[in-house]
Specification:
Helix content: 10-25%
Radius of gyration: 28 Å
Number of strands: 48
Strand content: 25-35%
Distance between the termini: 66 Å
């Protein structure tokens, strides 16, 4: 016996009252209990939103804008009175059992039991864990990847000179993924915590001090599927400009135009590609303290012609990025003007921070529209001078006392909100302001926003977070893997580190080399650290740029920077996949496969995209590296040797290389020629290496002009499709295009197709059915329509005309 409630109008807001305290809207069910009211709603086929409003709870405003997905407009909701079961459109259901809520998805055996709790100032939810369950995510943590048995705060906070074990860092994301096949997103930005079985091994608990008590249950067969659905719910990162994937030169900090220009000249003389110069706080003052808020090149002796400097760098393909902070220190040029936009005390007067490291200060109230407009006017003046990108620092906010208040009236709320209620979304709203204003005034330019703090959904605003002030040590390096991978599967795809380490330590060329080898396979490559000798601190003076390290370390780092530039076609396609599908650039080993338990333990290695396995060297003096290769066949990227997967191997390592493996069946596109910056990039001549397998495989390469914000929505891009069809005695490879066009697209693409591990000379090679000559050597240059074999590798030069539908290669 069950009660079926048909709803006649999707748009109707009228309730249908049913038995047992239920009310039903289109696709929404309300259930009243003695403790409060539950609301259940379906978002897509595999997501259930749950909100609980306790009796007498007043601070239940929803201040988060994280969710952009829309409710599933189903008209079919069944309520079975016998077991108090809610069923949504034969897709998912909830069973209410003595105050606990059991979620079940019809397309699997997945179930999850939840309940509400309150303790001290925290309100939240508890979920039952099984014995073998692993928990991942939660944003930026130096904790082990599996958060089971860990507890951590949901409160963005800097940690100076941190290393392994850092529980709480700058970017808290209240989203977790379980190895059982579900994710939970707690859409609450107030101060909170997650306990993943630390107090009670069988309980996952999340508590919050204020705000609407809402969470989303997201079902999926593996991490990939859960993350795809989660990023569809909260949004994905727009395409970056191609230059963002280059070498971004940075230090704390460049003191003058003369110094900066000299280092750039030295880098270029020694053949290091550069795409950006990032200026720390010395651009607006000569001292660390009492200058924040100037937002001008105030020392015209050290910076005599900032617009000309930026123009000259731009001519060389080098973009200028400036740091900015949301604090305005007393005595600076903008302090008096900014004061009316500062955060408030309880009497609605501007709040003065007296314990801020950089000086007595006010914090801009980023939630106010007039404050945003004023702040943006400072940005725009500098953009018109030639600034290409921005670095937003201290946006946690770093100093944010509990008795600071914020005016949220522009968001429709009358009361003042205390710091703890909005702390985690301060940086997020700063990111949003910059993105929206930039889009309004520069509608077809892609924003680069190097930032340190935010919330779920911040990726929509083109953020490129770095992992904070990491210690310059081997432990600091090792901490970057859980930090990076935890953020990646929390939906923030461009997380990266101050490569080489930021604080403390000594000038260790081995550590520096290993860190930059690792950084070459992370979303952003940006060496950065303290270089403060001119301020009387010689111990904090370790240059970030590789030209200041001796050989062989300098040459090794140069090779890896150049390898990153060679991989631009592959890396830029990763960005496209992320924007389209939510696929992170860096992925934990278990991302696609939750059946192989060994993958959950292989936390010191990761996948760079779908095809390249990276095993960074994380120990000083290492001569061996243990690596787990997933099932299948793998090729050494730097040697083409073939290795069987499904096993752990112990590989010899030397300082000049880290282990890199490519999955059999992969197509890896690379830039054929050497680049000084991405400004020199051209897709006219590409090298594509196909790693043979016995299975059919395919790959899609993305290309556009590398800068227009609207390229995807306007269709101004090209997709090039590669597919391999191996059989017992021949392999057929097809290359085709969607014939998309964009400004600067080559009229003809010359593709140098390489196939390693061909130990027997092919009997014949055909391109589009026509036999072509095969020479028995590896010539550095091949004419289009020719092939060479050097007893271990086949190389073909294939010309893909703009008008061609498909090229077919058979060997």
């Amino acid at each position: 016996m069950f009660l079926f409630v048909p709803l006649l109008s999707i748009a109707s807001t009228a309730e249908s009252q049913t038995a047992s305290g239920f009310s039903v809207y289109t696709g929404k069910v309300l259930h009243q209990t003695d403790e409060g009211r539950w609301c259940f709603e379906l978002f897509g086929n595999d997501i259930i939103k749950t909100t609980f409003t306790p009796v007498g709870y007043s601070n239940n405003e929803q201040l988060s804008d994280a969710v952009i997905g829309k409710p599933y407009q189903t008209e079919r909701v069944r309520i079975r009175k016998k077991n108090q079961k809610i069923e949504f459109d034969d897709i998912a259901d909830i069973v209410l059992k003595y105050g606990k809520y059991n979620y079940h998805f019809h397309n699997s055996s997945f179930e999850l039991t939840a309940e509400y709790f309150t303790i001290n100032e925290f309100r939240g939810f508890r979920f039952q864990l099984d014995e073998t369950e692993r928990i991942f995510g939660g944003g930026e943590r130096g904790l082990p990847m599996n958060r089971r048995g860990q507890g951590f705060s949901l409160y963005n906070a800097p940690a100076f000179s941190y290393s392994e074990g850092a529980e709480n860092l700058n970017f808290s994301i209240p989203f977790i993924i379980s190895s059982r096949g579900y994710g939970i997103f707690f859409d609450n930005p107030s101060r909170g915590y997650i306990d993943a079985g630390k107090k009670d091994a069988s309980i996952l608990e999340a508590g919050f001090t204020s705000g609407e008590l809402t969470y989303y249950i997201i079902h999926g067969r593996n991490t990939e599927e859960i993350l795809r659905r989660y990023t569809a719910l909260v949004g994905r990162q727009p395409l970056p400009a191609r230059w963002v994937l280059g070498n971004l030169m940075s230090r704390f900090g460049y003191r003058s135009e003369e110094q900066l220009s000299g280092i750039i000249e030295k880098m270029q003389e020694e053949d290091f590609p550069i795409d950006a110069a990032i200026l720390d706080l010395f651009w607006f003052g000569d001292s660390i303290r009492n200058t924040m808020g100037n937002l001008e090149f105030v020392n015209t002796e050290k910076w005599p012609d900032a617009p000309g400097m930026m123009r000259r760098m731009k001519d060389k393909g080098i973009n200028t990025v400036l740091i900015a902070e949301p604090y305005f220190v007393m005595g600076t040029k903008n302090y008096a003007e900014s004061k009316e936009f500062h955060s408030l005390d309880s009497e609605r007067k501007p709040y003065t921070l007296t314990d801020f490291y950089f000086g007595f200060s006010g914090l801009i109230d980023i939630f106010r529209k007039d404050a945003q407009d004023w702040f943006w006017s400072k940005y725009k003046t500098l953009i018109e001078m030639g600034v290409s990108g921005w670095w937003g620092d201290l946006g946690e906010p770093e100093t944010h006392p509990d008795d600071v208040y914020h005016d949220m009236s522009d968001l429709g709320h009358e009361r003042l909100f205390a710091a703890a209620e909005v702390h985690n979304i301060f940086g997020h709203y700063w990111n949003r302001m910059l993105s929206e204003k930039y889009r309004q005034d520069y509608p077809d330019t892609r924003l680069f926003n190097l930032n340190r703090a935010g919330f779920a959904g911040s990726q929509r605003f083109s953020v490129f977070p770095w992992s904070g002030d990491v210690q310059r040590s081997w432990s600091g390096l090792r901490a970057q893997l859980p930090v990076m991978l935890g953020m990646s599967i929390s939906g923030i795809p461009y997380i990266h580190a101050d490569a080489g380490g930021f604080a403390g330590g000594t000038k260790d060329p081995e550590l520096y080399t290993r860190w930059l080898q690792f950084a070459a396979f992370t979303p952003v490559f940006r060496p950065h650290g303290t270089a403060l000798e001119e301020l009387g601190d010689p111990e904090a003076h370790i240059e970030s740029e590789p030209v200041f390290f001796p050989d062989p370390f300098k040459s090794i780092v140069r090779n890896y920077i150049k390898l990153r530039y060679q991989l631009l076609p592959y890396n830029y396609t990763l960005s496209y996949r992320q924007t389209r599908e939510g696929a992170p650039l860096t992925r934990p080993m278990f991302y696609n496969d939750s059946s192989d338990q060994e993958l959950f333990e292989a936390n010191d290695q990761y996948m760079w995209g779908e095809h390249i396995l990276v095993a960074p060297v994380l120990e000083s003096g290492a001569i061996h590296r243990s690596i787990y290769l997933p099932k299948g066949v793998w090729y050494k990227m730097n040697g083409n040797a073939k290795v069987k997967g499904g096993q752990r191997i112990n590989e010899k390592v030397s300082i000049d290389q880290i282990p890199l493996y490519v999955k059999a069946g992969s197509f890896i596109p690379t830039q054929h020629s050497s680049l000084k910056s991405t400004m020199d990039y051209s897709g006219h001549k590409l090298q594509v290496t196909y790693y043979p397998t016995l299975e059919n495989s395919d790959y899609t390469l993305f290309d556009d002009n590398g800068r227009s914000r609207s390229s995807l929505e306007k269709g101004d891009y090209e997709l090039i499709y590669f597919a391999a069809f191996p059989s017992q005695n021949k392999t057929r490879i097809t290359v085709s295009s969607n014939q998309g066009s964009f400004e600067g697209k080559p009229t003809c693409r010359e593709i140098l197709l390489k196939v390693p591990a061909i130990s027997r000379k092919p009997e014949n090679v055909k391109i589009n059915g026509r036999p072509i000559p095969l020479v028995e050597d590896d010539r550095p240059e091949l004419e289009p329509g020719t092939a060479a074999w050097d007893k271990v590798r086949l190389v073909l030069n294939v010309s893909l005309l703009f008008t061609a539908e498909m090229v077919e290669v058979i060997f």
